[in-house]
Automatic annotation (TrEMBL):
Compositional bias ranges of the Basic and acidic residues kind: 366-378
Biased composition (Polar residues): 559-577
Function: GTPase-activating protein for the ADP ribosylation factor family.
Short name of any one Pfam family annotated for the protein: PH
Name of the protein this chain belongs to: Arf-GAP with coiled-coil, ANK repeat and PH domain-containing protein
Membrane topology: Peripheral membrane protein
SMART domains on file: ANK, ArfGap, PH
Activity control mechanisms: GAP activity stimulated by phosphatidylinositol 4,5-bisphosphate (PIP2) and phosphatidic acid.
Length: 801
């Protein structure tokens, strides 16, 4: 049974969390007992097996002696000798079997018990200790008298320090629980599967008996690969969430309480409060309160039935209480009784009072409107880039990506073994794989193959288009060109794993089946690609006419008096209610994102875009020598992914430098070609996004000069340095501002702002600004799915560098 604990719930330290922790601890204790028992039984089995082997060797020795005594009978002698040899081989198999049992069952499970379960127990001790300290600090803080300020300060400081320590320890404890629960299945199955494989080898002569079990073992083998992948992915996601939550500002725990009348579980607000008993002693007890279904209820433990304090909030009032000794008290009064409660701070008291008042108002409103709730949906984000109110297109995941990739001819079967219905892919090769071949590809290393799931992972549009432009048919024509000529057999799905592994390494690592071109063939290929690039350059489809943009307008963002408040950052404006709006342009609003323009009257856009610097026409000239790197160079410009893949298969260096052409690289030529997919292909194959040419310009410089917004977005996402300056001391932002390209100015400024925000948040920051994430996602989808919306300015062939 797999039990996971929510990180957010553990910070509340609610009864639900305590109940889950109790269940987890019991489950782990039982797991340890069962594993210890299994290890002891394994040790006894191995000892008994060794004794059996010793007796069996004596028996085989007796057979050999009998065979030697029967030298006169050739049939008996040869038969007994063969029997003795077979039995001796079985003894050797037995020895191997027991050694495998020693490694797979005893060693692996003992390691799991000693390492993972020990870490869980240590984390549990720290958690139990800090829980008691926190409870003591809360009680001491609540009991601090109002008129003794030094005791109040001391109790408050102790409570703050204890809470901080509790948050760190409980997060670590929950992480350890979730990692253990995720890992236990793979560890147990891995050890048992290894042990069963040893049995399969031992009973090789009894194959008919094991053939009935083999499909199940093969299925477990496939599931184990998936379990390892899932466990690693879950661990990575949990560690990222753990790190993200740990970096949040929890200096004030009061911020976690919010009133939400539309909560999915029907609980508008919940949290701990001290409640004064109605007995003669007027004792105070800490209880878990919640507002739900227009009622105020509390409970001591999660398993207890809630006790209703107020049946109907419409009949109640709530007020502050300042006439008693305790601080932060408030009272809920109904026609029949009153309930005195105490919060942990003034901010929490105000939050609870406001929540009760809102619940009272909500109860009256719902009653007056026959139970129909008002529409509480928030308005769309002011930072949205969508036009016409259309919903954003999200990154494809699951069946959508699978259907698109499998629609390519040849992709419905595994590229390497032919297994139908593949669910995995190599994104830098552009092929689909079955789960067994994907495991082998993953073992090759990411410099040879980057494996991703077609159903579990999220696919960005440019990566999905890359998969659709290559495919198994194209890649196999390159990497299996000489397979039949060399007489190499392509593996089948039922073949042993070691045969498949040997074939895949020969195919992609050694490139044994790739046909090497002659010098004349290579020359013809390069010349053909250069001519193809020339046709693309002169084609009207390559650079479509673009209408001049309208006069830039700022997005409206005003307060109730119609005034707009500007922040220090010229890319953001703050409205009177504290909300933020982008001054920069979006794909649906042709506004100019320029700080200078924001402080001065708008300047009209030019009807045509002048070149930011002297540019030259692409001219092919006879090089000193032809190489696969030169083929990759011109194929990148000609936007021919099959030729690019072929050049890499022939050994082309992805960061090859053309010393005869300003030291440009294939990635810079891909920018010249104007294709987003060719850039993505080179980046997936380890192209350097910051490599500069002789003019000191990297791919980001060239994409900015040409106004290729989609490529600018891609390079920024892949870590391009926007602060790099060329020999003219111009950065990409300088070039974009001179060219009045509002979209690229927006992207560069947003990337800069996000970088500064992440640096301010600390070295472990993960997400950055949400506005940055949303806008870059919109630009990414638009560049891949509707690039015409980004064609703001008219460009001509003479402006191509």
């Amino acid at each position: 049974m797999k039990i996971t604990v929510d990180f957010e719930e553990c910070l509340k330290d609610s009864p639900r969390f305590r109940a889950t922790i109790e269940e987890v601890e019991g489950d782990v204790c039982e797991l340890e007992s069962k594993l210890d028992k299994l290890v002891k039984l394994c040790i006894g089995m191995i000892d008994a097996g060794k004794a059996y082997n010793a007796a069996n060797r004596q028996f085989v020795s007796g057979i050999r002696e009998l065979a030697q005594q029967s030298t006169r009978d050739e049939v008996i002698e040869s038969s007994l000798t063969k029997f003795a040899e077979s039995l001796q081989e079985m003894i050797n198999y037995h020895t191997i079997l027991f050694d495998q049992a020693q490694r797979s069952i005893k060693t692996q499970l003992q390691t799991f018990i000693k390492d993972d379960l020990r870490k869980f127990k240590e984390a549990k001790k720290h958690f139990d200790k800090v829980s008691e300290e926190k409870e003591t600090a809360l009680i001491k803080n609540a009991q601090a008298p109002r008129n003794k300020q030094h005791e109040v300060e001391e109790a408050t400081n102790i409570l703050t320090a204890t809470r901080k320590c509790f948050r760190h320890i409980v997060l670590d404890y929950v992480l350890q629980i979730n990692v253990l629960q995720s890992k236990r299945r793979s560890e147990i199955l891995k050890s048992m599967l290894s042990f069963m494989h040893a049995h399969l080898t031992f009973f090789h002569q009894g194959y008919d008996l094991f053939s009935e079990l083999q499909p199940l073992m093969k299925q477990l083998g496939g599931q184990l690969d998936q379990l390892v992948v899932d466990a690693a992915k879950e661990k990575r996601d949990m560690e990222q969430k753990h790190s993200t939550i740990q970096q949040k500002d929890f200096s004030n725990d009061d911020s976690k309480l919010e009133y939400n009348v539309d909560a999915d579980n029907g609980i508008a607000m919940e949290g701990y409060l001290f409640k004064r008993a109605s007995n003669a002693f007027k004792t105070w007890n800490r209880r878990w309160f919640s507002i739900q279904n227009n009622q105020l209820v509390y409970q001591k433990k999660f398993k207890d039935n809630p006790t209703v304090v107020v049946e109907d909030l419409r009949l109640c009032t709530v007020k502050h209480c300042e006439d008693i000794e305790r601080r932060f008290c408030f009272e809920v009064v109904s026609p029949t009784k009153s309930c005195m409660m105490q919060a942990d701070s003034e901010k929490l008291r105000q939050a609870w009072i406001k929540a009760v008042q809102n619940s009272i108002a909500s109860a009256f409103r719902d009653k007056g409107e026959d139970g129909e709730k008002l529409d509480r949906k928030s308005s769309t984000s002011t930072g949205s880039l969508d036009s016409g109110g259309e919903p954003k297109e999200k990154s494809l995941k699951g069946e959508s990506a699978l259907q698109k990739v499998l629609a390519i001819p040849g992709n419905t079967c595994c590229c390497d073994c032919g297994q139908p219905d593949p669910r995995w892919a190599s994104i830098n090769l552009g092929i689909t794989l079955c789960i067994q071949c994907s495991g082998i590809h993953r073992s090759l290393g990411v410099h040879f193959s980057k494996v991703r799931s077609l159903t579990l992972d999220t696919w960005e549009p440019e990566l999905l288009k890359l998969m659709c432009e290559l495919g198994n048919g194209v890649i196999n024509q390159i990497y299996e060109a000489r397979r039949e000529e060399l007489g190499a057999r392509k593996p089948q799905p039922a073949d042993p794993r070691h045969e498949m592994e040997a074939y895949i390494k020969a195919k992609y690592v050694d490139r044994r089946f790739v046909r090497r071109p002659s010098d004349e063939e290579l020359r013809n290929k390069v010349v053909s690609l250069s001519k193809q690039e020339k046709r693309l350059s002169s084609s009207s489809d390559h650079l479509p006419p673009r209408p001049p943009p309208p006069t830039p307008k700022l997005r409206p963002g005003s307060n109730s008096s119609g005034q707009t408040v500007k922040s220090a950052d010229s890319g953001i404006q703050n409205s009177a209610d504290g909300s933020r709006e982008m001054l920069a342009t979006t794909p649906s609003s042709n506004s100019l994102a320029d700080a200078d323009a924001a402080e001065s009257p708008p300047m009209p856009m030019p009807a045509t875009l002048p070149p930011p610097s002297p540019c030259k026409e692409m001219v092919f000239y006879e090089p000193k020598e032809y190489s696969p790197g030169l083929q990759l160079y011109w194929a990148s410009c000609a936007r021919s992914l099959p030729d690019m893949a072929e050049a890499l298969a022939h050994g082309a260096e992805v960061n090859w430098v053309n010393t005869e052409d300003d030291k440009r690289t294939p990635l810079i030529m891909a920018v010249q070609g104007g294709s987003l997919v060719t850039c993505e292909f080179l980046l997936q194959n380890a192209a350097n996004v910051n490599q500069q040419d002789a003019q000191g310009r990297g791919p980001l410089h060239h994409a900015t000069m040409l106004g290729h917004t989609g490529q600018v977005c891609l390079f920024l996402k892949r870590g391009a340095n926007q602060n790099a300056a060329d020999i003219d001391e111009k950065t990409p932002l300088t070039i974009a501002v001179e060219a009045a390209n509002a979209d690229i100015v927006t992207l560069l400024r947003l990337a800069k702002m996000n970088e500064e925000m992440r640096e301010a948040e600390g070295p472990y920051s993960q997400s950055g600004d949400e506005t940055y994430q949303d806008i870059f996602q919109d630009f990414t989808h638009m560049a891949s799915n509707d690039p015409e919306k980004l064609n703001r300015y008219q460009q001509y062939d003479s402006q191509r560098p």
